[in-house]
Design brief:
Radius of gyration: 23 Å
CATH class of the largest domain: Alpha Beta
CATH topology of the largest domain: L-fuculose-1-phosphate Aldolase
Order of helices and strands: HEEEEHEHHEHEEHHEHEEEEHEHHEEEHH
Distance between the termini: 50 Å
Number of helices: 13
Helix content: 25-40%
Organism: Stieleria marina
Strand order of the largest sheet: 9-13-12-11-10-14-17-16-15
Largest sheet: 9 strands, mixed
Oligomer: single chain
CATH superfamily of the largest domain: Class II aldolase/adducin N-terminal domain
CATH architecture of the largest domain: 3-Layer(aba) Sandwich
Pfam family, one: Aldolase_II
Domain Class II aldolase/adducin N-terminal: 12-188, 231-404
EC number: 4.1.2.17
Strand content: 15-25%
Protein name: L-fuculose phosphate aldolase
Length: 430
C-alpha cells in the first residue's frame, strides 16, 4: 500500500508523472490524462488541449466533489470515465490513461497481454481486462470501463483506443502502467522471433516468495570511493530507466566496494528516483541498517565471490533482450565486431537459478562470458566498472534489437569463425 502520509500535492504528482510518461514516449502531446482523487473527494486531473510535453502545476484542474471546476483550463474530455471508475472502485485513488504504441496494438487486435511473461509484470500489473469500444468522452465509454474495473481489474485495454490503469496512488498506478506497457512491448518483439514461454503457478510462486536474509549493521564514515560509487549507481540507474533498459519496479545494479562488500540498489523503490543515500551497503551477511537490499543481493554476492575481476553487476529487463529470454531462441551476438568483443557468447540460464541461495547463478557469467539471458527474467550483465557494465547492457540490448529487426528483412548472417578468430587476436580475447 502507499504511504498514508503522502506529502506531494496532486498538482505536482500529476505534472511530474505526465512529464515522465511523455519522456518515455508512452503518450503524445495531445493524448492521455492522469487524475488523483483526494481525501475530500475532489478529483485533480490533467487539462484538456494542453501540451503534455510542457505541462505546469498551474495547468492541473480540480473538479470539486460538488461538481465545480477550479483551474485555468477545462478538465480532460475523458473526465467522465475517471469519475465513473472512482465511483465503481472506492479503493482506486489514481488513474493513468494513455496511448502507448504497444498497448494500442493490442487494443486494435482486441487482445490483452499475458503478464505471465515474467514474475514482476504479473505481480505489479494485477488483474487485466478489456473494455468494448465507445466514443471518447461519452457516458457509454465511462460505463464500459467502470464495469470492467468493477470486476476487479486493475488495468484495462480499451478497444481501438488505449489503456486505463488504476492504483491507490499515482506512483502505484504509474508502475502498473509501465509494467503493463513493458509486457506488451516484450510480447510483440518475442512473437517475431519464436514461441513465447509463459510462467506457470509454481514458477511464479518461486519468484514471489524468495527471501534475502541479512543481519543489519551501522556502517562507519563513507570513504570517497564509496561516495563516488553511490553517485555512479544512481546516475546509471536513472539513465537506464530513461533509456528503457530498466523499469521503475524491477532491476538491480551493484558495485564492488572491497573483497567482502558491495553497494546495491534497494528493493521496492522507484529506480529513477534513487538518491545516494538510498543505495544499500552489504558486507558479508550484513546489510546497512534501516534499508532493504534488492532481493537479488545474494545473486550479486555469489557472482562477486566467484569472480574477483567483476566490479559491477546489473540485472535488467531491456525489452528486446528480454524478448529472447521469454522464448527458447538463442541470442547470437556474432553480428558486428562491437557486439562480440563486448559480449562474447551469451548463455541462457535456466529459470529461477538467480533466486536460489546456492550461488549457481555465478556459473552462468565469467570474464569470458560477461552477460547471460535469464529465462523469463531479463538479463544479467557484469563489468569491470559501473560504466563498463552499463555499456555492455546497452550493447546487449542494441544487438538484440538489431537481430529482431533483421529478421523482418531477411536471413541473419552471423560473422564466420574466421572473423571471430581475427577479433580474438586483435582484441586479446582469451
Amino acid at each position: 500500500m502507499s504511504d498514508a502520509r503522502n506529502l506531494t500535492h496532486p498538482r505536482d504528482d500529476i505534472m511530474r508523472t505526465m512529464d515522465r510518461i511523455y519522456r518515455y514516449r508512452m503518450t503524445t502531446t495531445s493524448g492521455g490524462n492522469l487524475s488523483i482523487r483526494d481525501s475530500a473527494g475532489d478529483i485533480w486531473i490533467s487539462p484538456a488541449r494542453v501540451d503534455k510535453g510542457n505541462l505546469t502545476r498551474k495547468d492541473i484542474v480540480c473538479v470539486r466533489a460538488d461538481g465545480t471546476v477550479d483551474g485555468l483550463h477545462p478538465p480532460s474530455s475523458e473526465f467522465p470515465f475517471h469519475k465513473a471508475i472512482y465511483e465503481a472502485r472506492p479503493d482506486i485513488l489514481s488513474i493513468v490513461h494513455a496511448h502507448p504504441v504497444a498497448l494500442v496494438a493490442f487494443s486494435i487486435c482486441r487482445q490483452t497481454p499475458n503478464s505471465r511473461l515474467f514474475h514482476q509484470a504479473y505481480s505489479v500489473c494485477g488483474k487485466l481486462g478489456f473494455a468494448p469500444y465507445a466514443c471518447p468522452g461519452t457516458k457509454e465509454l465511462g460505463t464500459n470501463i467502470a464495469d470492467t474495473f468493477a470486476q476487479g481489474c486493475d488495468g484495462v485495454i480499451l478497444e481501438n483506443h488505449g489503456v486505463v490503469v488504476g492504483g491507490d496512488s499515482l506512483p502505484q498506478a504509474f508502475k502498473r502502467f509501465e509494467a503493463f506497457e513493458f509486457a506488451g512491448k516484450t510480447l510483440i518483439q518475442a512473437n517475431q522471433i519464436g514461441e513465447v514461454q509463459y510462467l506457470d503457478d509454481t514458477q511464479l510462486e518461486l519468484a514471489m516468495h524468495r527471501s534475502v536474509e541479512f543481519d543489519s549493521f551501522q556502517p562507519g564514515v563513507a570513504t570517497g570511493t564509496e561516495q563516488e560509487l553511490r553517485r555512479q549507481l544512481c546516475e546509471f540507474v536513472r539513465r537506464g530507466c530513461r533509456q528503457r533498459l530498466l523499469i521503475s519496479t524491477e532491476g538491480s545494479f551493484s558495485a564492488r566496494l572491497d573483497a567482502n562488500s558491495f553497494l546495491i540498489t534497494p528493493t521496492q523503490r522507484d529506480r529513477e528516483l534513487l538518491r545516494a543515500g538510498d543505495i544499500v551497503l552489504v558486507s558479508g551477511d550484513d546489510r546497512e541498517a534501516g534499508k532493504l537490499a534488492s532481493r537479488a543481493a545474494r545473486a550479486h554476492q555469489a557472482i562477486y565471490d566467484k569472480h574477483p575481476s567483476v566490479q559491477a553487476i546489473v540485472f535488467a529487463h531491456p525489452v528486446n533482450a528480454t524478448a529472447f529470454s521469454v522464448t527458447e531462441i538463442p541470442l547470437d551476438v556474432r553480428t558486428i565486431p562491437e557486439s562480440y568483443v563486448f559480449l562474447r557468447d551469451v548463455q541462457r540460464a535456466p529459470y529461477g537459478v538467480q533466486y536460489q541461495n546456492d550461488g549457481a547463478i555465478a556459473d552462468w557469467v565469467s570474464e569470458k562470458t560477461p552477460a547471460a539471458l535469464l529465462q523469463n527474467d531479463g538479463v544479467v550483465v557484469t563489468g569491470t566498472t559501473v560504466l563498463d557494465a552499463f555499456d555492455r547492457l546497452e550493447v546487449l540490448e542494441s544487438t538484440a534489437e538489431a537481430v529482431i529487426n533483421a529478421k523482418a528483412i531477411g536471413e541473419v548472417s552471423a560473422m564466420p569463425q574466421s572473423v571471430i578468430n581475427e577479433l580474438c587476436a586483435a582484441f586479446d580475447l582469451k
